[in-house]
Amino acid sequence: xxxxxxIAALVFPAAPCLLxxxxxxxxxxxxxLGKDVSLEVVYIPPGKFMMGSTAEEKAWAxxxxxxxxxxxxxxxxxxxxxxxxxxxxxxxxxTEVTYGQFKQFAxxxxxxxxxxxxxxxxxxxxxxxxxxYVKDGxxxxxxxxxDKSWRDPGxxxxxxxxxxxxxxxxxxxxxxxxxxxxxxxxAGQLPDGFEVRLPTEAEWAYACRGGSQESHYFWWGxxxxxxxxxxxISAVDFLPGRETVWPLANAPWSDxxxxxxxxDHYGKxxxxxxxxxxxxxxxxxxxxxxxxSTGGHEExxxxxxxxxxVISPVCRGGNYFDVPGNARCAVxxxxxxxxxxxxxxxxxxxxxxxxxxxxxxx
Length: 362
Known about the structure:
By secondary structure, the protein is of the alpha+beta class. The chain has a single domain, classed as Alpha-Beta Complex (paralog of FGE (formylglycine-generating enzyme)). It contains five helices and 15 strands. It starts with a helix and ends in a 10-residue tail after the last strand.
């Protein structure tokens, strides 16, 4: 790996502008972040896709195999299947931004994340938790704490540089993107008129389906069993220091990790038709849009209010803790605020034309 990074570093200074010429679908390029740290992006051509999910899919998600909680309105957030189109090609990170990549950003800029700010908190796994159902009700395995952050998300084991970074907020992800924009532009790989940013919800949903215009549950199709060796979700893996696995519905195999797995851990089998890894499961991924409970939009959607903030950023894709029904292409959630962070949330970069929001920028 070090040899590959060293070779890539030699190439970067002489590289042409990243988007200054035609590209083939699935073409990839490494971008230098400094100190032998790189980030690979993949070209996604313009195209059509289906947003939302069918009634049959929603029923599967809340059924025995899908395991999502029935009787809630969560699946309604996905909306009915509807054809949409991404008009312009863009580049997207092959993987989610890693701990090592975010560490390079924080070190170079002395960045302090929202969770690390005075009064900041983040959601982490509660190691004292051992069951959902108790006499007085339901207990969830997550708690809000003031002493954890992306540096130590509280898993009880050290973070690896190739794990996806977590416990970052929407504001933190946008700060990373601004820094990366400046860096790759100075390196001559990013022409004027383009930026590194979060994907719009439509770009993310289109990229997740890997070029398919069908409304499949997952990027490979509808069969959960074909997901073995493709994604990290709640499966048959022991929780740290225990002889128990995540309760409720599980994928009926071991993916080797109760929490985070390294990005692109599953190799080519874990990549969709565009060559993107970990688009289902792994960690929730922030997108630019503000959450609309009726479903996602083809154009960037946000609410402009007096405080000039995006109230509830959208996250897509599910995470390592989710049951299969909550890690599908169509799954979407609204996050509490632009400063909220969680050990199940991360992000993936996109490179394309600027998309302006009214989110607070630190």
